[in-house]
Design a protein that fits this description.
alpha/beta; about 25% helix; 7-stranded mixed sheet; 12 helices
Length: about 550
């Protein structure tokens, strides 16, 4: 990675000041996902911010999986997260798991008990909620809060040894049940869970809560800046409390930023899982999903996502970003890099009447008009061609400059042709257009200098490549599909989010390897799907040439 975040942001301002004042002499960050699902576009902001911040200041950034809830976690997600980070263009310094610290975290829990700062509580979840109080009323102390250190140590060790069933007891920090910050009202720090762990196996039947293991993992690793989203702002007090009570001499500083909210997108793991399990989408990497693997499959370049994150900046104010900005970044990136080609998505046959049978003219054109170093591609022209059905009308309106009886158009990069007739079927549908071509117009310009207003794309029938094309649109019809006032999110699905049909590609298109991107002239940007084969070519539309998000 050479391009770190260029836009100024308040987090870098804080770091600049603290480095200047000697509060810190180094910068160490981490990206700490929970491996319970696939990363989405919102995670991209955190990834870019954490890794780029470390890079900007010559520091380190670790990847740490916060795997303290084995009932929802899986190695499938661990592998996918690594793949997404590398695809975005970042490389971690070390890979850690919160479970690497379970022995240490357990020792910290016993330390709190010995200090009289933690106790084993037997309240049920419902009773605990009742005792917790409200935003306007203080909570009440648990009747088990004054257990002796000896009793708490004994019970906690017996919890660890598996003597008690799930949910029967928890270990709680002893802080302040009257605190205006509800998070500080004796939070749970350990619960009983007889579930095998993907890293530690059956070693543990008690697992630390996120609010306990997370700050201790940060401090143990030597993180200097714990950068997280705004929903953790209220948790900062308990984050600092645990680090202080355990006695770390160089505590990390937690700084919160506004998360990335993108309209027309769903990022809730629970709801995304429902989309997958119900078959509404083909999987986590369905190109309509807001997951990074879905965007990768759709053909979104990683550089475009980094550019998008850079453009939206870093702030403390929550906002919703228009999806059109992301598409614009994708479009700009592909415009500069994608090879050009021609594809007909809705084919209509054209016969060049004054072209002899078997005639073939091989034309050369630039693979990319702005990058001659990319070379040229060869495009064949012959008697039978295909154009888009929308590029021909029998009775066109005014200012229709494409093909109609008696009109001339330029076939992109080839010849000027004139419509001299057409064939229809029994229902009156046009099945074939007949044209003549100007033999002196090779390259697309008339020898006599006459002006041709319309230029259309085409493919040669002889070497056309048949493919399946998948046209993707937004998955939801409403800007905020999670808004329950609009009904269940599945009621807001766009029925036209995916259209599948056959199309024809020009024979000179080049290698159709999975992931390869192209600009299909006048159509948009497309990529070859990961499931595409030589026998069954699949093309995904990445983005249209012009914004469809107005």
């Amino acid at each position: 990675m050479e391009d770190f975040v260029k836009t100024s942001n308040f987090i870098h301002d804080i770091i600049d000041e603290e480095l200047k004042e000697g509060v810190n002499t180094r910068v160490q960050t981490r990206f700490p996902p929970e491996p319970n699902g696939y990363l989405h576009i919102g995670h991209a902001k955190s990834i870019c911010l954490n890794f780029s911040t470390a890079e900007k200041y010559g520091g380190t950034c670790n990847l740490r999986f916060d795997d303290s809830n084995p009932s929802k976690e899986d190695m499938e997600y661990v592998d996918s997260i690594k793949e997404d980070i590398e695809w975005l263009g970042f490389k971690w310094d070390n890979v850690y798991y919160a479970s690497d610290y379970f022995d240490f975290v357990y020792e910290c829990a016993e330390k709190l008990i010995k200090k009289g700062k933690a106790f084993v509580c037997d309240l049920t979840p419902d009773e605990m909620r009742e005792y917790r109080g409200t935003l306007t009323e203080p909570g009440r102390n648990s009747p088990y809060r004054d257990r002796s250190v000896e009793e708490n140590l004994d019970l906690f060790r017996r919890m660890k040894n598996g003597e008690f069933p799930d949910g029967s007891r928890v270990l709680r920090a002893k802080i302040d049940m009257a605190s205006p910050n509800i998070v500080m009202r004796d939070p749970i720090i350990y619960r009983i869970m007889h579930v095998p762990h993907h890293q530690t196996g059956d070693k543990w039947c008690i697992y630390p809560m996120y609010d306990f293991v997370h700050p201790l993992s940060d401090a143990k690793e030597g993180v200097t800046y714990s950068i997280c989203t705004l929903e953790f702002e209220n948790n900062r007090a308990v984050y600092d409390w645990f680090i202080k009570e355990i006695g770390f001499e160089e505590p990390p500083r937690q700084i919160e930023f506004a998360r990335l909210n993108l309209n027309y997108c769903l990022t809730s793991k629970r709801k995304c899982l429902k989309l997958v399990q119900s078959g509404i989408v083909s999987g986590w990497d369905d190109p309509r999903m807001a997951t990074l693997c879905g965007m990768r499959r759709r053909g979104y370049p990683a550089a475009a996502i980094r550019d998008f994150v850079d453009k939206i900046g870093v702030s403390k104010a929550n906002s919703v970003v228009d999806y059109g900005l992301l598409e614009s970044c994708v479009r700009d990136n592909l415009n500069a890099s994608a090879p050009r080609a021609m594809a007909v998505l809705d084919p209509l046959k054209v016969v060049i009447d004054n072209c002899e049978e078997g005639f073939t003219d091989e034309l050369e054109t630039d693979i990319h008009p702005d990058h001659p170093e990319m070379g040229k591609r060869k495009v064949k022209f012959g008697k039978t061609l295909y154009i888009e059905k929308s590029d021909f009308m029998t009775d066109p309106p005014k200012k229709y400059f494409r093909l109609f009886p008696g009109n001339e158009v330029r076939l992109k990069g080839a010849y000027i042709v004139k419509c001299v007739g057409y064939d229809t079927d029994g229902d009156g549908n046009v099945t074939c257009v007949h044209c003549t071509y100007d033999t002196d117009s090779r390259g697309g310009n008339a020898a006599d200098g006459r002006k041709i207003k319309g230029t259309i794309h085409w493919v040669n029938a002889e070497d056309a490549i048949e493919a399946e094309v998948r046209l993707y649109d937004r998955l939801f019809n409403v800007p905020n599909p999670s808004d329950e006032s609009k009904g269940d999110f599945t009621e807001n699905l766009n029925p036209n989010s995916l259209t599948v049909s056959k199309c024809l590609l020009e024979g000179g298109i080049g290698e159709l390897t999975p992931g390869a991107s192209f600009q299909f002239m006048r159509q948009g940007y497309f990529c070859v799907d990961k499931d595409s084969t030589n026998e069954h070519i699949i093309i995904n539309r990445t983005v249209q040439l012009n914004s469809s998000w107005k």
